[in-house]
Write the C-alpha cells for this entry.
Amino acid sequence: MRWCRGSVDEGRIGRISVARRALCVGIGALWALSGAVAGEKAAARSAEVGADAPTLPPAAKTLTGPIAKMTPFLGTWRFEGHWANGQSLWSQNVYRVGLAGRFVEAVTYAKDGDGAVYERYLTVFGHDAKTGKYVTYGFTFDGTAKTLPMDVSETDGKLTLQSQWSAGPAAGEIRQRVTVLDKDTYRWQVWTRQGAGEWVAIMDGEWKRVKA
C-alpha cells in the first residue's frame, strides 16, 4: 500500500490527488472487509469442528483382566544398592496403568556409579489374549527393543515375576526375578551364566515404594 502514501516532501513532489485518495480509501475498505469475512469463515469452521468432535473417554485408573495381578506394583519405587561386583546402582521405577487398563507401563531411571540420572527403559507388561500368556515389550534408551515371555506365579501368597533372555555372547544369558514381599517392598534378583554353566547371582536387593 506504499502507492497510497503521501510524499515525504509534499510541497516539492505534490500531494495525492483527490481521485487517487478516494481509490486508496476504497482499497483499504475492501481489504478490511475481506479480512473480516475470512475471520468469520475460519470461526465458523472452528465451531463446526468443535460441535462434531466426540468426547474423549477418561484414562483407565485401574487394571482389568489377568494383568490386574500386577496391581501391587503400581506407583513409584526406588532402589539404592550394589551389584555383586561392588558397583553402586541407583534406580527408580514408575509403574502406571496403561491402555484400557489391560497393560502396565513402566519407566526406569538409572544412575550408574557417580554418573548422572538418565531414563534407561520403557517396559510394557501385558497378557496376550490370543496366547493366554504374559509378555513384556522392552525399549532401551539406545534404541533397541525386545519382546520377552514372562512367568507370573504366586509362592506362599507372594507374587513373583520372572523372565529370561540372551544378552549376547559376551554377557551370556540373564535371568531376572521380582517378588513382592509386602505392599512397600519387592525383592529383585538377577543371575547370569555362560553357555551351559551354572547360574551366578549378580544382584539381590530390595526396592522400596516412594510414598507421595
